[in-house]
Specification:
Number of helices: 11
Strand order of the largest sheet: 1-2-3-5-7-10
Strand content: 15-25%
Structural class: alpha/beta
Bound molecules: acetoacetyl-coenzyme A
């Protein structure tokens, strides 16, 4: 596919995807979902970690309001289901996914960032779910993911007030994991990515899966999943890592 909105760069196992619809603040339109869906189902095998970022002043300023305004209730529901499904594909990738939030992450943009495994933000990032200003509600998983990520009261506060918050405030709420100067955003995110890629690759995948899938299970089931995955690493990558530790050597995975 010839991408018109996404720009991709693959280097040292890290696939960086930049959303480049700058004139519309990277608002998510139908073409974005076509491109993102294609990318997610055709990830190059060399891509071991995905970084999602935006070009210009915005990470993503939300779903494209111009595309939504005339929809009927049934079309609105479909629009929501489509976005939810693409964001679930991001969440369900077995490789780690980091959002490098460079600017406005509003509505569907905040929801996209929340579908990633964690978020690194620049000091110029702004987060919010302003949908109630438009007489709608978050429709790309925001009501569900935000409450799970930062708790019911924080989600209620942000979604019901539509308040836009700074990166520092988002850090305080646990919505982002680190805040850096704008010129250091990609460099810092790539360093974090490289650090993750230096670890046991199977262990990283299974840890991600246990956290993600465990959240959708009752606690005892989540613990069983953890034990199974823990066990599967023995006489496997775990043996390599633990024996290297005991021999005071670096593991060679
Ligand atoms: N959809 C469509 N176009 C958008 C957009 C969006 N979400 N956000 C910005 N744009 C467009 C503007 O209409 C404007 O276009 P024109 O140049 O053709 O007029 C262009 O991007 C630049 O935007 P502004 O002039 O508004 O730039 P600004 O710097 O003054 O403000 C902003 C930036 C605060 C991000 C402001 O654009 C804004 O509030 N955007 C809308 C944010 C929003 O409400 N997002 C939620 C969308 S609904 C949603 O996402 C639902 C869901 O969960 C599925």
């Amino acid at each position: 596919m010839d991408y018109t909105i996404l720009k991709t760069d693959l280097s040292e196992g890290i696939l960086t995807v930049t959303i480049t619809r700058e004139k519309a603040m990277n608002a998510l339109n139908a073409r974005f979902f076509e491109e993102m869906d294609y990318l997610l189902t055709n990830l190059p095998t060399e891509a071991k970690l995905l970084i999602i970022t935006g070009a210009g002043k915005a990470f993503v300023a939300g779903a494209d309001i111009a595309e939504m305004a005339d929809k009927t209730p049934a079309e609105g529901e479909q629009f929501s289901l489509l976005g939810q499904s693409t964001f679930c594909k991001i969440e369900n990738l077995n490789i780690p996914v980091i959002a490098a939030v460079n600017g406005y992450a509003l509505g569907g943009g905040c929801e996209l960032a929340m579908a990633c495994d964690f978020r690194i933000a620049s000091t110029s990032a702004v987060f919010g779910q302003p949908e109630v200003n438009l007489g709608i509600i978050p429709g790309y998983g925001g009501t569900q993911r935000m409450a799970r990520l930062i708790g019911k009261a924080n989600a209620m506060y942000l979604i019901l007030t539509a308040e836009m918050i700074t990166a520092q405030e988002a850090l305080r709420m646990g919505l982002v994991q680190k805040v850096v100067e704008p010129n250091l955003l990609l460099e810092t995110t790539r360093k974090i990515a490289a650090n993750i890629l230096s670890k046991g690759p199977k262990a990283v995948t299974l840890a991600k899966m246990a956290i993600r899938d465990g959240l959708n299970m009752p606690f005892p089931e989540g613990q069983k999943l953890e034990a199974r995955q823990f066990g599967s690493l023995f006489k496997n990558e775990g043996e390599v890592g633990m024996k290297a530790f005991l021999a005071k050597q670096k593991p060679s995975w």
